[in-house]
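Q: Hi! New to this. If I give you a protein sequence and the SMILES for flavin mononucleotide, can you show me the bound structure?
A: Yes, paste them in.
Q: Okay, here:
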Amino acid sequence: MSDKEILIIFGTETGNSEALADDAKSLAGDYGLDAKIMDMDDVSVEDISNSKRLLICCSTWGEGDQPTNAEDLYEDVCEADEGSMDNVNFAVLALGDTAYEFFCESGKQWDTIIEQKGGKRVNDRIDCDVDYDDDDECENWIKSTLEKLGNI
Ligand SMILES: Cc1cc2nc3c(=O)[nH]c(=O)nc-3n(C[C@H](O)[C@H](O)[C@H](O)COP(=O)(O)O)c2cc1C
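A: Thanks. Here is the predicted structure of the protein with flavin mononucleotide bound:
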């Protein structure tokens, strides 16, 4: 494992979050980072707590619910020891739809729980509506996040 590794994890139902995670992986090298991308279904709490740099891309489903592939990991992280993520520098990219009552709720939950377990937020969460692809805001957020994580 290189010293400049970043773990990028995605929670998704229809692939939008995975596509953005892929974009982040493609850009990571520009910031001196060695990116590893994982489906949340394949991620353990230890994978997260051992990551110095973590980017979470996650959509919201149902009525403010985690995507299916994120449910188990989210529950496990909620049960993790306080302070277990003290060494994790992280940021959250949330995907959702403002037409729903609980806009980007899953991303908000990730942002809260990783900090509660000791993680250090390097960039404020971005909450992306359905038109997130229409301008550069999302890509610019990914770049600024990678830049901050690359400097750690
Ligand atoms: C059945 C359904 C339920 C959804 N529920 C929510 C919700 O509660 N809150 C929200 O912000 N977005 C909600 N969304 C919007 C999705 O989060 C959004 O379309 C997102 O881009 C999907 O990303 P994904 O392909 O990574 O899962 C819902 C979409 C569908 C189709």
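A: The chain has a mean pLDDT of 97. Let me know if you'd like me to explain how to read the tokens.
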